[in-house]
Amino acid sequence: MRKLCSDKPKKLGVAVNKGAWSKQEDQKLIDYIQKHGEGCWRSLPHAAGLRRCGKSCRLRWVNYLRPDLKRGNFGEDEEDLIIKLHALLGNRWSLIAGRLPGRTDNEVKNYWNTHLRKKLVKMGIDPNNHRPRPVKGFAQTSDEDNSSVSQLRSEQEPRETSSTKNTSSFVPDLNLDLTIGPPLMDNR
DNA sequence: AAGGGTGCCAACCGCACTTCG
DNA sequence: ACGAAGTGCGGTTGGCACCCT
Q1: What is the DSSP string of A128-163?
Q2: What is the rounded CA–CA span in Å between residue A128 and residue A54?
Q3: For position A101, what pLDDT does the model report?
Q4: Bridge partners (DSSP) listed for residue A126
Q5: Positions of strand B less than 7 angstroms from a protein CB
Q6: Which of A26, A106, A135, A167 has its Cβ near the most Cβ atoms within 10 Å?
Q7: Which helix (H) or strand (E) holds A167?
Q8: A44/C4 CA-to-C1' distance in Å
Q9: For position A9, what pLDDT does the model report?
């Protein structure tokens, strides 16, 4: 298996910070990327003088520091779009986020898990397959559906395009043109 | 006022995919 | 063609803030 981010310290003899980022760390990262652009994440921390692994830097930049991020509450139109996209794409958060300018996959994922999922449940819709829930409990819910979906997915080639076709097969009547084109540009 | 419960979100982990030598 | 290294993605977790009793 691949070396994990957290394995680095032993190898390099340098302690790697974990957990919340400090303002100084943020600033270092911003400064570095503004000067050199997003490049090799692996070497970035060392070059930028950060005691973080590249992965952590990338995540911090993509999810929090990027200047084009919107942040703040999701609008109703965004909620709608997320729900529709999720019905079509499943948990392809990066694809969904690609359709929402200024939003990140992590943000969309969190918002889905904390707000939209519950919202759908309240409306009597199964958030996993976007079908009306059976009145009597959860007879056929997430597990079965998810497994079939992941099975379908695993049969597809690249992640990006995969579930696009398959999950859409059981999406009800969504009046939305979602031809998958190139992402909105910025994207990572 | 304090303690427990719950929700939210940033960050981490590990797998899958891609690229490169 | 193959293996190692780098990157991206989705799932999960940790910890803080807020609410309720």
Answers
A1: TTTEEPPSSTTTT-HHHHHHHHHHHHHHSSSTTTHH
A2: 33
A3: 87
A4: A131
A5: 7-18
A6: A167
A7: helix A162-168
A8: 20
A9: 38
CA A1 → C1' B15, Å? 10
At residue A92, the 3 state secondary structure works out as coil
Convert the pLDDT of each residue in A154-170 to its tens digit: 333 344 333 333 444 44
Query: Torsions phi, psi of A126, nearest 5?
Result: -75, 115
Residue A151 confidence (pLDDT): 36
pLDDT, tens digit, for every residue of A125-137?
888 778 776 654 4
> Can you give the distance from the CA of residue A6 to the C1' of nucleotide B13 in angstroms?
9
> Do A168 and A156 contact (CB within 8 A), yes or no?
no
**Domain segments of chain A: what residues?**
9-65, 76-168
Question: CATH number of the domain at A76-168, out of 1.10.10.60, 1.10.1060.10, 3.40.630.30, 3.40.190.10?
Answer: 1.10.10.60
Residue with tokens 């340098």: A14
CA–C1' distance A103–B1 (Å)?
41
Task: Report chain C positions within 7 A of protein CB atoms.
Answer: 5-12, 15
